[in-house]
Write a sequence for this structure.
């Protein structure tokens, strides 16, 4: 039965360019998400400032460089740095991506989608177990966007993600713009994707924006989406968030990501209000289906 006392939360990614706007509008922000790598090699004063922020609003750490989804073990020294940051800040939770970021000693420079195979499922689960042991708590894992469907894959994305979650016992940070991007780029139904993931494992949702691109300038070229976090959240992502509200039976934390081309803070807060409305519409659909007033 639907829990009438549940409370969804809405927040924004912490960026220095947005700091003043966030601090002046904490009444409209339930949580902030901090990029872990931005604070792995900073002064104690900056750590203290972030700890002070955590006394005003809950914080979540978000990692981008561990490379969890790989048959190669995550380096212990990288986990140690995350562990020290978690100990210093005591965030509510932390997360990482279902991606690999290095190979053969070389840094790729972006989040890459690994082949979706039994080997990467097992390798990811082992890396998540290592992270849990070193850090003291395992990360939620995030689905990523890609311009290239991983070659040599034997699983589709929702099956691969579900297998990792089942084997590792971890939770899912569901990025809806990444779902939308991959659906457009590879021609699948994003709603069918949502219907196949284990919603009992979804705790957090990312929303963001991207841009249409094409390597071929001719009008007949098939365009794809680049998930760049530099643009407003598109209507299609709000629609998926409404669908998420109908699927999810547990409280969700929705985070708006923006990494550049920053608009005035009021425009970002307006996007958060649109997110609140979209999720509320989905919750209302679930209530009607369950016969709850």
């Amino acid at each position: 039965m639907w829990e009438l006392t549940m409370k969804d939360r809405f927040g924004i990614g912490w960026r220095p360019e947005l700091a003043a706007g966030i601090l002046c509008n904490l009444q409209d922000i339930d949580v902030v998400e901090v990029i872990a790598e931005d604070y792995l090699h900073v002064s104690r004063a900056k750590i203290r400032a972030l700890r002070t922020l955590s006394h005003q609003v809950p914080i979540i750490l978000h990692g981008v460089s561990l490379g969890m989804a790989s048959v190669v073990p995550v380096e212990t020294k990288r986990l140690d740095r995350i562990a020290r940051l978690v100990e210093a800040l005591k965030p509510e939770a932390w997360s990482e991506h279902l991606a690999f970021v290095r190979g053969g000693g070389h840094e790729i420079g972006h989040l890459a989608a690994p082949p979706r195979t039994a080997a990467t499922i097992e390798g990811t689960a082992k890396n998540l177990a290592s992270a849990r042991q070193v850090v003291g708590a395992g990360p939620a894992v995030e689905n990523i966007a890609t311009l290239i469907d991983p070659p040599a894959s034997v699983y589709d994305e929702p099956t691969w993600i579900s297998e990792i979650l089942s084997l590792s016992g971890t939770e899912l940070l569901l990025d809806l713009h990444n779902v939308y991007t991959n659906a457009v780029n590879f021609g699948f139904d994003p709603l069918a994707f949502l219907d196949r993931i284990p919603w009992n494992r979804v705790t957090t949702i990312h929303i963001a924006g991207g841009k249409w691109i094409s390597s071929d300038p001719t009008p007949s070229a098939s365009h794809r989406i680049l998930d760049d976090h530099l643009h407003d959240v598109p209507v299609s992502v709000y629609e998926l968030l409404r669908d998420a509200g109908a699927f999810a039976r547990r409280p969700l934390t929705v985070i708006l990501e923006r990494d550049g081309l920053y608009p005035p803070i009021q425009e970002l807060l307006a996007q958060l209000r649109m997110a609140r409305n979209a999720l509320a519409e989905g919750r209302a659909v679930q209530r009607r289906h369950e016969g709850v007033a």
User: Anything to note?
Assistant: Residues 265-290 form the longest helix (26 residues).
